[in-house]
């Protein structure tokens, strides 16, 4: 079993097991190192002298990766004086390089390999610090973290903030994309000017055009006066387009024109108005996949992503959880001792599918309701769903009845957890669940999760 280079000189070397037919492209006698960028082993580095190394989660691998999504024997690296060749060993989840799956390929210095949830990078030993600079700070705006992943993100953000180039922020729901956008605005040259947020997923499709670009009196039924859109209101400052992947395809050409010409015409108007704004966008959607599926314009994607940053999910940086907990407690005006060591240990073990937002809500709940509320935070235990549907699941009942009992219990538990996580915001709940709003309303009514006026949580106030 290999250990990081601060424990030994490197993984054990074995004679090459086969002769590669790939063309030789000399790289010189450069000492190489394998760095773990993400996953449970993030931050570790392994020297790669000439030899052959197996990577996987099995204890007999040369480099052992503590990642449940990695196969026991996942990939083999063959290191020679001239090159590094990676060969997939029939792994279950596959091996990828720069997003493309491979069976065998030559790994050039700087290329990123992805095995399960683990990302690896082969680099010359003496260039690691120059190529992956780490910020000396543990926060950027309201984002906090001391992990390697977050400090690399902070480095990028610190470089992006002073400029005017448009930025695309990608990441799962709850990773802090709006906080990231606010930080870019506050630490840039436009900090004294407006920061205008537009949640494209929380606005009715028929109103998006007016919200973005404004309208003149009489432009449509209900337009009783002129109204400036988000771009005009943000003049001199920053427009934050949250969930830009939800923008209807028919409106994308108009947004593209605004971005390219920096001028806007109100709905129903005739005159163009010059804009001086920075545009920061965010999405949890894979926009590259949306482009390939022709659901998002390629030219708009490239215009939005002049600069791009990806926020890592909390499960890939668990070492940040203690700092995040303390940060939430400070914002709540509570001392660090407000949570016991036992509770902190439980929070460290939870996978946090809702990311930092879920952690914040759970800490808030425990502080206000007591630590006895902690066991109810995990919606992933099937027996709880069954018990809430009317007692423990009765396996002696007919199959159809038992199945209905289990499904109904799961639906109710899932909806209750979803609405708590989304703070009662209906559109956001539908978005996070990945289901149609009409169907979500139907499920809520089915399980009696309606407000006193007989309507689900209001969707017209979901501002992000």
Poorly predicted ranges: 5-29, 127-131, 378-392, 451-464
Radius of gyration: 26 Å
**Helix share, percent:** 25-40%
State the shape: globular
Give the strand content: 15-25%
| Average pLDDT | 80
Largest sheet: 6 strands, antiparallel
Question: Roughly how many Å apart are the termini?
Answer: 47 Å
The neighbouring-strand order within the major sheet is 2-1-11-10-7-8
Structural class: alpha+beta
Number of helices: 15
- Overall strand count: 22
Indicate the topology:
Elements: E1 32-38, E2 45-48, E3 51-56, E4 63-64, E5 75-79, E6 84-88, E7 95-97, E8 100-102, E9 104-106, E10 112-115, E11 118-124, H1 128-131, E12 139-140, E13 143-144, H2 148-160, E14 167-170, H3 177-186, E15 195-199, H4 205-213, E16 214-215, E17 227-228, H5 230-233, E18 238-242, H6 252-261, E19 263-265, E20 272-274, E21 278-283, H7 287-292, H8 298-304, E22 307-310, H9 321-331, H10 341-349, H11 355-369, H12 382-388, H13 399-421, H14 426-433, H15 437-446
Parallel strand pairs: 3-4, 14-21, 14-22, 15-18, 18-21
Antiparallel strand pairs: 1-2, 1-11, 3-5, 5-6, 6-9, 7-8, 7-10, 10-11, 12-13, 16-17, 19-20
Describe this structure in words.
The protein has 464 residues and is α+β, with helices and mostly antiparallel strands. The chain is built from 15 helices and 22 strands. Helix 6 crosses helix 8. The protein starts with 31 loop residues before the first strand and ends in an 18-residue tail after the last helix.
Give a quick rundown of the structure.
This protein is 31% helix and 19% strand.
């Amino acid at each position: 079993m290999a250990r990081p280079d601060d424990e030994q000189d490197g993984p054990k070397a074995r004679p090459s097991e086969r002769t590669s037919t790939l063309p030789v492209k000399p790289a010189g006698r450069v000492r190489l190192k394998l760095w773990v960028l993400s996953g449970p082993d993030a931050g570790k580095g392994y020297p790669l002298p000439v030899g052959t190394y197996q990577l996987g989660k099995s204890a007999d691998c040369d480099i052992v990766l503590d990642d449940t999504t990695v196969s026991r024997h996942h990939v083999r690296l063959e290191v020679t004086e001239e090159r590094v060749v990676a060969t997939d060993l029939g792994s279950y989840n596959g091996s990828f390089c720069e997003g493309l799956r491979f069976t065998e390929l030559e790994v050039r210095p700087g290329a990123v390999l992805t095995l399960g949830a683990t990302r690896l990078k082969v680099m010359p030993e003496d260039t690691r610090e120059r190529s992956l600079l780490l910020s000396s700070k543990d926060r950027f705006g309201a984002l906090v973290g001391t992990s390697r992943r977050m400090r690399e993100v902070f480095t990028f953000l610190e470089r992006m903030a002073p400029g005017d180039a448009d930025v695309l922020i990608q990441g799962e729901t709850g990773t802090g994309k709006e906080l990231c956008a606010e930080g870019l605005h506050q630490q840039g040259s436009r900090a004294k000017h407006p920061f205008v947020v537009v949640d494209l997923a929380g606005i009715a499709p028929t109103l998006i055009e007016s919200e973005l670009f404004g309208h003149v009196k009489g432009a449509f039924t209900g337009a009783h006066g002129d109204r400036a859109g988000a771009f005009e209101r943000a003049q001199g400052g920053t427009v934050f387009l949250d969930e830009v992947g939800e923008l209807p395809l028919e409106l994308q050409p108009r947004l593209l024109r605004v971005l390219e010409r920096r001028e806007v015409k109100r709905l129903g108007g005739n005159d163009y108005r010059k804009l001086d704004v920075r545009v920061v966008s965010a999405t949890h959607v894979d926009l590259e996949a949306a482009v390939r599926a022709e659901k998002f314009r390629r030219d708009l994607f490239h215009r939005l992503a002049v600069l791009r940053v990806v926020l890592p999910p909390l499960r890939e940086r668990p070492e940040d959880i203690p700092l995040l907990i303390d940060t939430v407690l400070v914002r709540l005006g509570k001392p660090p001792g407000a949570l016991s060591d036992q509770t902190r240990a439980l929070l460290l073990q939870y996978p946090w599918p809702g990311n930092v937002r879920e952690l914040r809500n759970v800490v808030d709940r425990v502080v206000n309701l007591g630590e006895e509320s902690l066991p109810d935070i995990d919606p992933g235990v099937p027996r709880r769903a069954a018990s809430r549907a009317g007692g423990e699941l009765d396996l002696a009942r007919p199959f159809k009845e038992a199945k209905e009992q289990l499904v109904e219990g799961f639906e109710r538990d899932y909806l209750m957890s979803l609405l708590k996580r989304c703070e009662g915001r209906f559109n956001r709940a539908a978005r996070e669940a990945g289901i149609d709003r009409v169907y979500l309303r139907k499920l809520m009514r089915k399980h009696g999760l309606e407000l006193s006026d007989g309507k689900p949580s209001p969707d017209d106030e979901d501002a992000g």
